[in-house]
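pinned: reference chain
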Amino acid sequence: MQCTPSFMHDAACTEVVSSMERKSGVDRPETHADQSQDKPGVHGVLSIPSELIHHILKYLGNTDLVNTAIVCPTFRFISQRVIYRNVQPTEDMIIPCLRCFASYPHLASCARTLILADATRHYDVFSNYFNLLRSALLNASSLTDLTILLDGPYARYLHGCSFRLRSLTTTLDWDRDFIKLIAEQTELRNAMFGGKFVNDVVLPSGTLTKLTRVSASPLVLAAVVPNRKIKEVELCLLQHALFKDDILNTASNILSYSTGPLTALQVITRLSDTPSALAALKAIARNLPKLNSFAFYSSDGVVSQELLEAFPEFLSCFECLKSLTLMSRNKVDALHDKAFTATLASRWHTSCPSLQSVSLAGSIWLHNTRHGWVTLADLERLLRERQGLLLSRQKHWTEADPKTISVEEVKNNLEEDKEDAEQGNQMEQQMIVLRDSLLQFGGP
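pinned: its C-alpha cells
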C-alpha cells in the first residue's frame, strides 16, 4: 500500500529532510564512501536488495519514513524515494512543497504523482508564484500523473517540462498555450479537462494519439474525440438546462466519431423534467448503440419513478450494453427506494438481453444464467458455495476406489465440471464487467 503524503503531512518532515540534505550535500550522489558511513547495526539489513527495502518501506507512515531516513545514507536515499513518490500537499503547504521541489531537484525527480489544488483560493499568492510553480515542475522529470486545479490561462508555465504524463487532471483554460502543453505530452492516456474553452482554438490532428479516456464538457470533447481512439468518455453537463434532446443528440453524434471505438460513457448532469431527460437519453442510445457500459449521475434534480419505468424504451436501442449505473445525490428520489428498484434489473433485461450488471444508487445486481438476477452479496455467496462443492467433489474422487467407478459416473462428473467451469468463468467475467463499469477519471 503506497503512502500518499500530504506533503509529508507536517513541516517537521520537511525540516528533518532538509537538515539531512544540508549536512550530506544535496547535489552529491551516493558513493561507496557514503555507504561506509552506514551505522554498524544496519550492515546486515543493507545486504538485502534495495528494491526489497523500497517495497518494505512503502508500508510505513511518513513519520516512520523520516526516522528511517536518519539511520544512514542508504536508508535516507530509499526513504526519500518513497516519501516523495506520491505528493499531495494541503493548501497551506503548496508553496513549501513547490519551494522544496524547486530547491532540491533530486527530490522532485522522485515524484510520480503530484496533486496541486489552487493555492490562489487559500490565500493571496506572491507575485512570483507562477515562476516558482514552473521551477518546481521543471525539476519533476519523472511525473506520470499530474492534477493541477489552477483556473485560468496559466498553461504557459508548464511548457518545456521534461515529464511525460500518462494522466492529467486540470482546470487550466483550454487556450493556445494549453494546446501547446498537451501537444508536448505524447504519452497521455487519461485526462480530465475542466478548464474554460476558448473559441477558435484548434487541436492539431497529431496530438493525443494515445489518449483513451477523457472527461470534459461538450465543446472540449468535440475538439478531442473525433478521429482519436477514445474508448471511455465522461460528459460533464453541470449547467442548468443542458440535459436536453438537441444538446445530447449533437454531443453523442460527435462521440460516435471516435475510432476507439467508444465503449463506455458516463454522464454527469442536472435533471430538469422527466420528458426532457428521457428524450436526451434516447438521443444517446440512437447515436451510440454499441456502448458496453453506460453510467448516469444526477448532481441535482429528481430521478422519478416515471423516468425509471420508461427506461425500457431507452435500453432497447442498445445492441450490446452490459453494464448500467445510475446514481443521484437526491437521497429521497426513486433510485433510493429499494422496494421499487428491487425488480428493475429483471424488467429491464427483457428490453436489453445483453445487460449483465445494474447498479442503482449503490445497490448492485448481476445476471447469472443459472440463478437469474442476484445481488453482489448473493454472487459472493454463490462463489463460496461453488468452491465448497468443488472441494467436496475433489475429495470424493480422491477417496473413491477406481474399481468401483462406472463409465457413467465419469461422464457425469466431466459434464458437471464443464458446467461449473462455465459458471465460474461467467461469475469472474461479471466481476470484471462490474469493475470496468465504475469509471474513474483523472486517476492513474
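why pinned: Residues 6-37, 439-444 have pLDDT under 50 and may be disordered. The first helix runs from residue 11 to 24.
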